[in-house]
Amino acid sequence: MKGMHVSIYRSADESDCTLKGMSSRFTQAILIGEGVPELFEPGPDCPALYLDEHAGYQCLLPMPRKEIEEQGRWFMDGGNFAWSHDSRFPCDYPIPIHDREEQ
Length: 103
What we know:
This protein has one helix at residues 65-70; strands spanning 4-9, 28-32, 48-54, 57-61, 81-83, 95-96. By secondary structure, the chain is mainly beta.
């Protein structure tokens, strides 16, 4: 799958509320989802984030919702966001990254 580059934004005080989620380790990602231009492939230094809708607003997940449900996992907001100044970005505001998983 391909998508578009986005930047990952974290708290300036370097606190990690993701419990070592992917957004705590990377500064860039590839946004994949419906209506997102298919320009670049994710890789080891730039992982995929999947566009999803949760409780009426958009969020980003570290894997497709179908895989999460099949594996019986649950991800929640860890405080980080993704954004791009590219006019093709699918939202008018930074999108929260739901990559916090509690064991």
